[in-house]
Amino acid sequence: PNRGFTEMHCMSGHSNFVSCVCIIPSSDIYPRGLIATGGNDHNICIFTLDSSAPLYILKGHKNTVCSLSSGKFGTLLSGSWDTTAKVWLNDKCMMTLQGHTAAVWAVKILPEQGLMLTGSADKTIKLWKAGRCERTFSGHEDCVRGLAILNETEFLSCANDASIRRWQITGECLEVYYGHTNYIYSISVFPNCKDFVTTAEDRSLRIWKRGECAQTIRLPAQSIWCCCVLENGDIVVGASDGIIRVFTESVDRTASPEELQAFENELSQATIDSKTGDLGDIDADQLPGKEHLNEPGTREGQTRLIKDGEKVEAYQWSVSDGRWLKIGDVVGSSGANQQTSGRVLYEGKEFDYVFTIDVNESGPSYKLPYNTSDDPWLTAYNFLQKNDLNPMFLDQVAKFIIDNTKGQTLGNVNTDFSDPFTGGGRYVPGSSSGSDVSAAADPFTGSGVFQSSPLKALNIYFPKKEAVTFDQANLTQILGKLKELNATAPEEQKLTEDDLVLLEKILSLTSNNSAEGPTAHQLQTLWKAVNWPEDIVFPALDILRLSIRHPTVNENFCNEKEGAQFSSHLLKLLNPKGKPANQLLTLRTLCNCFIGQAGQRLMMSQRESLLSQAIELKSGSNKNIHIALATLTLNYSVCLHKNHNIEGKAQCLSVISTVLEVVQDLEATFRLLVALGTLISDDSNAVQLAKSLGVDTQIKKYGSVSEPAKVSECCRFVLNLL
């Protein structure tokens, strides 16, 4: 019987090569799941199992999509040569993860909701939480190519430096594994354990058990691009010869003797280029003959080179068969020296030489890496120290190094087999591109609105329909402070007595909801005061906060012509290094902008930059700033609830999740919960996204807050939606 796989479907939708594939688990709508593919055409195609044409195409990356990972609730994470990763929900991009400076070769969604990993050609790995970079892992010395999740707190990475690293999610590197002699492309974990497999540019698949390389399987192809472990423990690899091979431990699924023989023949006919360093440094004149194969090997996958006439052949020991299997003919080895064979990779670093030193015949042999630019005596000393060997050997080892590297001028790394992805010609993308003004609590408008209701089942909290504003003020105090600070203003910015009268007029007009609007001259005076130096501007900002609620002022500052200048000035005042009083009053001004049509339009058009800057203020301990930040998010949620912009909702969800982690004040918490409820009401996509970011687990604790009762009640209503 044919125990192999048969082709069910051929799907097409990309206009250029396909670089990654991933399965999206089954859902209510697609019980059989979906297949996602990333391509060189910058697109991601999503297929059902029933059609050869894409269900839909995700567009947004600006270069090849080279990695995909699927998560719960229909989320998909993609990595690209454009240096970004993107989070998708169904057919929409939710957020873009920016921070790497080179291609993002590997992505993984972690089991804990909201956590994502990206590995890049900039040699780093980043951990993202709710769309923001939480931590950067450094240690690899070349492109990070693959990631694999061990459990909720640990993961593995592999890289072009020929090493594998095991990391803790908190940032520590727990272990480094060496064994491959060239770029490692792919890593996959066995189900329910810490054992894993890797494939590389050294023609091999390696199986790692308990931290050691337990088995090396050679293949008749140079590049073993990818591997994955199936649920039954079988290992699937894809290689540069266009063939997919499946390896198994199960006797029932082992290929027929004919197929096994065919594989062995294919392997024995392969030509192994000695220049790649896959078999170490080779001197054909020193190699033994075929009689060397009469001695059994000592471990699975051990390689042995022998000379047969003019040919050099490579053999590998198979424990199960108890014999040496030929794995290919070594080409370019006759008289090959270091000059022709390029540099040698050892423990992830390139060296001009890696010598094998036998200290005594019965003991183990030791590897001695050396570069011609190194001091032979120092290298010998370090080698003896590292391997705990007798310092008496110092002269002997140093002399050995000098004798064996005489007069070598070393050529460049050989690039004959330069591969378009990883070789010297590989594509490396460029860089991607303290004082509190008002300590009064700010109640929601319509002060009685949020009183806890005896009818527990009635949700009076969200979706909120109107913007929340900051209206409280002591006008006499504000004007008094303005006059006092005017005396210290630079001469060219000082306000005249007339100016001060005009500002007083604005305050009384806008605070009494007068139908009469301020004049253009009065508004120019206000703008002049708002541009005062940072250390004295806060009373002017307070006047702006109150007056921006007036339709005339709102239209004047937020219209299409003036809006850009207005918002960029406020952005500057949000600077995290600035004065807390300015930050607080600027946030309150932004909240109050939402009361007018022009203000709403301006706030929505500047959403990305304003929220990105505002969230930087989360780390202070000023509770009034936290309340203002929560209110700004809430006002954005009110607008987004009306227009269902899912990318905007994704940014707000990310802000809510991030700010909830730091706020202590329950009023700020409450406003964030109302914002969350408003965002996800009547929108199943937003509910899915909130779940995938793990917001539900984050807010559970607020369900038990006793005072004020509105916090726990609102929390329970949100949890019901989730």
TrEMBL record:
SMART domains: WD40. Gene3D superfamilies: Leucine-rich Repeat Variant (1.25.10.10), PFU (PLAA family ubiquitin binding), C-terminal domain (3.10.20.870), YVTN repeat-like/Quinoprotein amine dehydrogenase (2.130.10.10). WD repeats lie at residues 58-88, 97-129, 177-209. SUPFAM superfamilies: WD40 repeat-like (SSF50978). Interacts with ubiquitin. Interacts with UBXN6, VCP and YOD1; may form a complex involved in macroautophagy. Belongs to the WD repeat PLAP family. This is Phospholipase A-2-activating protein. It comes from Monodelphis domestica (Gray short-tailed opossum). The lineage of its organism: Eukaryota, Metazoa, Chordata, Craniata, Vertebrata.
